[in-house]
Write a structure and sequence with these properties.
Elements (H helix, E strand, L loop, with lengths): L1 H19 L2 H21 L7 E7 L4 H11 L4 E7 L5 H6 L5 E5 L3 H6 L4 E8 L3 H26 L7 E8 L6 H32 L2 H5 L5 H29 L9 H25 L3 H17 L12 H6 L4 H15 L3 H29 L2
Parallel strand pairs: 1-2, 1-3, 4-5
Antiparallel strand pairs: 3-4
Helix pairs in contact: 2-11, 7-9, 7-10, 7-11, 7-13, 9-10, 10-11, 10-13, 10-14, 13-14
């Protein structure tokens, strides 16, 4: 028994030395854990901080000024716009500049003087239903606190002088599924595309078929194109399957056009394929390719806005999201699916994806020429 234990201990010691003696292995063991812990800690949060909102104050009275001062005095809300007319509400919400708009009616003072309960209209951008619902609840608490102060000052009864009437745009019932499932059209297709392209060259190296491919008349550029197109097609098929489930099973209505949706998905796939091919060209084995893709996918998912809004993240981390194609892909799909807007409105998401494709695809081609020939 003791001899067997000594042999096992010796083998464990040998394995640990083999793992820890390699500098690159030590980095792989330490750095991804630290990086992912930091990303999870900062990015995976539903905490609200400096929620952007706009005000349409038709009353411009002392009461409305006092209410807005109460809202602005918290650390939760940040007023980014003062509107002058109702037609200004839709554009600022559509562009995602604000999470909510508070409309204070002109007859605020007259209604309160008459002892009426005056409605305040609250318009929510419910594309992210969780954040919108939380922000509306916080604002409701502030209004109730303001009501209690007004009742105590005027000696009124239990009736609320002000009441919130909430309207949720793009997701009237504030269903989390409406926010999450359409985003999976981009997220799951990126997962599939990146893994397939990352493994494509590494798999042939391990199987010994890549040398045979190099002696064919195909040039490195032609090999790259041949390796890129199948993952794009499979990614589009994956997106179609998620779309069918979203429409057929979950009954989430699609407000946009399929042509607009798929035009953005193709641009999104190209950016992902370029990144995957670069990983594949740099990886010597399938294990390296899979590990590299996994380490890259985790931060991409967290920094995409899939589960938690990008606006909730620290400013320095929000800057990092601008090199993440998944952020723009998810935003594009959500807007095309839920809002029904066209390419003229969605171009701010299309341009970054095309730029990323313009960088990653030539990089992959360069790596193919310099590492594979």
């Amino acid at each position: 028994m003791r001899a067997a234990l000594r042999r096992i201990v010796a083998l464990v010691r040998k394995e640990l030395l083999a793992i820890l003696s390699d500098g690159s292995t030590r980095i792989i063991l330490v750095m991804p854990a630290i990086m992912q812990t930091l990303v999870f800690g900062y990015a995976a949060t539903f905490d609200l901080n400096r929620v952007p909102y706009a005000v349409l104050d038709a009353s411009r009275s002392a009461t409305s000024a006092a209410l807005l001062a109460r809202i602005d005095g918290t650390a939760l809300f940040e007023r980014v716009a003062n509107l002058d007319a109702v037609p200004q509400i839709a554009p600022i919400v559509d562009r995602g500049q604000v999470l909510l708009v508070l409309h204070i009616p002109q007859r605020l003072e007259a209604g309160l003087a008459a002892g009426e309960s005056v409605p305040l209209q609250l318009i929510l951008d419910a594309r992210n239903s969780t954040t919108a619902g939380t922000a509306a609840a916080y604002l409701g608490t502030i209004v109730e606190s303001f009501n209690a102060e007004q009742r105590a000052r005027a000696g009124l009864g239990p009736a609320s002088p002000l009441r919130l009437e909430t309207r949720a745009w793009f997701n009237p019932q504030l269903q989390t599924r409406w926010n999450f499932v359409p985003a999976l059209i981009a997220a799951l297709s990126m997962l599939q595309t990146l893994m397939l392209t990352a493994l494509s060259v590494a798999r042939e190296r391990e199987q010994g078929t890549f040398d045979q491919l190099l002696v064919t008349p195909l040039s490195p550029a032609e090999i790259m194109v041949g390796k890129a197109l199948p993952p794009v097609l499979i990614g589009l098929l994956q997106a179609t399957l998620v779309l069918v489930v979203a429409r057929g099973w979950f009954q989430i209505p699609m407000a946009g056009h399929l042509g607009t949706l798929y035009a953005g998905l193709v641009c999104f796939m190209l950016a992902g394929v370029g990144l995957g091919l670069a990983i594949s060209a740099l990886s010597a084995t399938m294990q390296q390719a899979m590990f590299s893709a996994f380490v890259l996918l985790m931060p991409m998912m967290l920094l995409s806005g899939l589960a938690t809004p990008v606006s909730n993240m620290p400013a320095w981390l929000q800057l990092a999201t601008y090199v993440n194609p998944l952020r723009f892909g998810i935003d594009y799909v959500r807007r095309a699916y839920l809002e029904g807007v066209g390419l003229a409105t969605l171009w701010p998401d299309l341009v970054p994806m095309l730029l990323m494709a313009a960088v990653t695809l030539p990089l992959a081609a360069w790596l193919f020429r310099n590492r594979l020939t």
